[in-house]
Design goal:
The chain is 43% helix and 15% strand. It has 261 residues and is an alpha/beta fold. The chain has a single domain, classed as Rossmann fold (3-Layer(aba) Sandwich). A 7-stranded parallel sheet has the order 3-2-1-4-5-6-7, with helices on both faces. α1 packs across α8, α3 packs parallel to α4 and α4 runs parallel beside α5. The chain is globular and about 50 Å long. Bound molecules: nicotinamide-adenine-dinucleotide (NAD). Nicotinamide-adenine-dinucleotide binds next to α1 and β2.
């Protein structure tokens, strides 16, 4: 994308987890369009590669670097930070976006293995990133975490309860870290999307993506549509930018008004 004015993230360096598709891809595209350089922290090299390759022929070709790793592994966070500093010279922003959902259904029927998977993949990266990136940000006396929670955290509803619980932890941890890291100049915020146009839709609808299922969900959203990767990219860009430099510890709903119902 051609720019004739400084972008809102000009000169910034970000790690975006789960950057190879869905909301992470939307966040990565927005960040790069606003001048940031991004390390795409992806468990799937092919997902990450596809997004990075889409910049290969343009002026942003050096702004996307794929890092294959698992966000639940402390060692992968250590390597990601090292690669980021080697490739880009620094790190300013971490977006904890990678996450998973269980199939919507009665809470007592969700298998224990699914419960464990949800809690592990959705919550432990906040611990790992705080442990590895926290000291780096504190030392340089600036840095921003943007954590992708869910509107199901402040407004849990039936059948996605374990997922909502994991996102409740994401929101609570984000606020706690905001209070703790604030005096060191480090900000931490959460974004709460409503159901979004990604591969997760089928699970949210109980296993099958149907026109009727989508219509039911859309009816409950005052602005009348699902969220898009672009919506979440825009919100993440604002929270990560210096325009938000007095904002920390918020849970920003990007939900078309869903939480009002
Ligand atoms: N899609 C929705 O309706 C919705 C709504 C609210 C919140 N969210 C949250 O937004 C985030 C992104 O969701 P999405 O729908 O874009 O997901 P998605 O399934 O479309 O994409 C997730 C990406 O994360 C990667 N990933 C998965 N596990 C990983 C790991 N351990 N380490 C590194 N990368 C990993 C995957 O390879 C994939 O590319 C999640 O945290 C999700 O809970 C999604």
């Amino acid at each position: 994308m051609s720019r004739n004015h400084p972008g809102r993230l000009e000169g910034k360096v970000a790690i975006v987890t789960g950057a190879g598709m869905g909301l992470g891809e939307g966040i990565t595209r927005k960040f790069i369009s606003e001048g940031a350089r991004v390390l795409l922290f992806e468990i799937s090299f092919s997902h990450g590669r596809k997004v990075a390759d889409s910049f290969a022929d343009g002026e942003d070709k050096d702004k996307a670097v794929v890092f294959q790793g698992d966000v639940t592994e402390l060692g992968d966070w250590e390597r990601a930070l090292q690669v980021c500093v080697e490739m880009f010279g620094k790190l300013d922003i971490v977006v904890n976006n990678a996450g998973v959902v269980h199939r919507s259904g009665p809470s007592h029927e969700v298998p224990r293995s699914e419960y464990d998977r949800i809690m592990h993949i959705n919550v432990s990266p906040l611990y790992q990133s705080a442990k590895v990136i926290g000291p780096y940000f504190i030392k340089q006396r600036h840095g921003v975490f943007v954590n992708i929670s869910s509107i199901s955290a402040p407004r849990p509803r039936p059948n996605l309860v374990w997922y909502a619980g994991s996102k409740g932890a994401v929101s609570a941890i984000s606020k706690g870290l905001a209070a703790e890291f604030g005096p060191s100049g480090v900000r931490v915020n959460a974004i709460c999307p409503v159901v979004a146009e990604t591969g997760m839709v089928a699970s949210v609808l109980g296993g099958t993506d149907t026109v009727e299922g989508r219509a039911g969900l859309t009816k409950a959203i005052p602005l009348g549509r699902f969220a898009t990767p672009r919506d979440i990219g825009n919100a993440a860009c604002f929270l990560a930018s210096d325009e938000a430099d007095f904002i920390t510890g918020v849970e920003l709903p990007v939900d078309g008004g869903r939480a009002l119902n």
